[in-house]
């Protein structure tokens, strides 16, 4: 397939997926992201994500891995996807590049809002030190300010990646763990209390118990951790021992999975204003994007899945 035909094909999938959650896809916002970063989409990991929080109303997020030989931030700037800024957020990606072994790069965009995030993931078997991340001059100071917290829970050498959300001016730090590290109810409760976040619901505890890692959101304007999230893998969200939110259920029922059969991540997020839930559905799966344990990890040793057939 020619590159343009491949982009048009993916665009139709994005449009159909947006319809499932009653969102009108903006070609003016989506197409420039696809033409800027989409030249290796046929080989990329591609995921769609819905979330229940107020900040996600009327939006569908799409994320995909990109080629490793581009600098995604300068490429986004030169293609007008984001504006030049003096804010430290503008220097963060190059500091990550200088200090960490990046194995996978990805971008995220909203079908309404357009270009949003850049992801930098490190090799799953080479977890990185949090203090190294906290020492970067452009990292929010709240990471260094909370180092004791991470040390207390054994997380200080478990960084698997960092993402940067340009319009929101926030950054996520991702932590990975092995099944042996799974966090029990008591620990989760204590972590959230330490961060002055609300006590978790039963649903959040169910998800946290099965989580393959956790991640948090920081900004340059607050000394606090803004959000704290537990993601769990599942082959079928409808079989989870939780009541799926109507928006997530609607999405799950109709979503097209391309070549990625049964690869979902259901995530519980804690914020000072309460909990919300997110579901990512992989349309194409590549094992490098996130280091997953158990069954998912096992099939990552098999040959890559075939390129998706047109749906
Ligand atoms: C989770 O963060 C996303 C990933 C771990 C992988 C992205 C996948 C690719 C195919 C590149 P998020 O972006 O959903 O976080 P937030 O909740 O802050 O939006
Ligand atoms: Mg997510």
Q: How is this structure best summarized?
A:
The chain has 311 residues and is of the alpha+beta class. The protein is built from eleven helices and ten strands.
Describe it:
The chain is an alpha+beta fold and 311 residues long. It is built from 11 helices and 10 strands. It has helices spanning 3-20, 27-37, 72-78, 89-99, 130-134, 141-145, 147-152, 185-194, 202-209, 246-254, 294-299, and strands at 46-51, 61-66, 104-110, 114-121, 159-165, 170-176, 213-219, 227-234, 264-271, 274-284. The chain has a 10-stranded antiparallel beta barrel with strand order 1-2-3-4-5-6-7-8-9-10, surrounded by 5 helices. The chain is globular, with a radius of gyration of 18 Å. 41% of the residues are buried. Mean pLDDT is 90; it is low at 293-311. Bound molecules: geranyl diphosphate and magnesium ion. The site of geranyl diphosphate has 17 residues, from β1, β2, β3 and β4.
